[in-house]
Amino acid sequence: MSAIRGIIAAAVLAAAPALVAAQQGDVEARLQARGLPADLARDVAAVATDAAARGVPTGPLADKAVEGWAKQVPAPRILTAVRAFAGQLADARDAVRAGGLAEPSGDVVVAAAEAMGTGLGAGPVASVVRAAPNAAAAAPALSVTAALAAQGLGSEQAATIVVRALHSHRPMVQLLNLPSLARVMHSEGLAPGDIGRKMLEGGDDEGVEHASPTRGVRPPGVPPSGQRDTHRGPDN
Description:
mainly alpha; elongated; disordered C terminus
């Protein structure tokens, strides 16, 4: 049995250089097909190949380069951005793995990187991934966490809100509506910290049940804007 394992390991090692070369060639060809010059495509493909060896998805790196080229960003800046993004994705992959996903999909890793870009630490990312009922739910849960943090809620607070929502087994549509509900609360005059506290106290239950991305609802306990100053006289 040990001899067979040795043969398999040797075969994998022998095939690895060819696989790496093929992968780099695929990325390079894709970038050139999108109009990137040959030297930039080659350099980005090299970064992607190195990232792939560390378990980082290469598709988002290629997309980053294409996006930069479409925006007429100079090639050196594109390459710098792709290298930085590769590092962010590696950190995100480690955080997701710490949450229990040994082989996370590219969508989950990208969602984690975006969440960490809003200031979310590796610990909260891992806690959100750990709370997700399955791998498919991890990416949207991280995206919701990032959206809440981007609205001014503290990153720890945003992660706690999402983790509690996941633990309460809410339907995915309700989870996805949390950022919309936060925007409604903000429009009613609540500060981000108050929004987070209200959500954690359970004040979002009714609102999240009826909210939709296209139609806002008044959060429970928050009076309509037209009634906010009814105690004031008509001349005030």
